Amino acid sequence: MTPSAYWDKTRRLTLALLGLWFVVTFVAVFFARQLDRVNLFGWPLSFYMAAQGIMLVYLAIVVVYTIWMRRAERRLHLHSEQMHGD
């Protein structure tokens, strides 16, 4: 992977994950009143989403980013070693 391809893919991943973060954070909160009609374990669904569900999505975002970046950096490092003959 070339450095420019690495940065292009990193930017796209970052934008996609930020888009997911935005949707989960603001869209779910915007529609929270409509979600109060549904109960989950005795609590309104909006409360459950705020207290548990959204945090799990944030954790998933961090895990996906970490795994992807480790793989991409490994590929970039291998490419640079092949280019420089190290």
Automatic annotation (TrEMBL):
Keyword terms of this UniProt record: Membrane, Transmembrane, Transmembrane helix
The keyword Membrane is annotated on this UniProt entry: yes
InterPro entries xref list: Na_symporter_ssu
Chain ranges passing through the membrane: 12-33, 45-68
Coiled-coil portions: none
Stored Pfam families: DUF4212 (PF13937)
Location of the Sodium symporter small subunit domain: 5-77
Name of this protein: DUF4212 domain-containing protein
Native species: Herbaspirillum rhizosphaerae
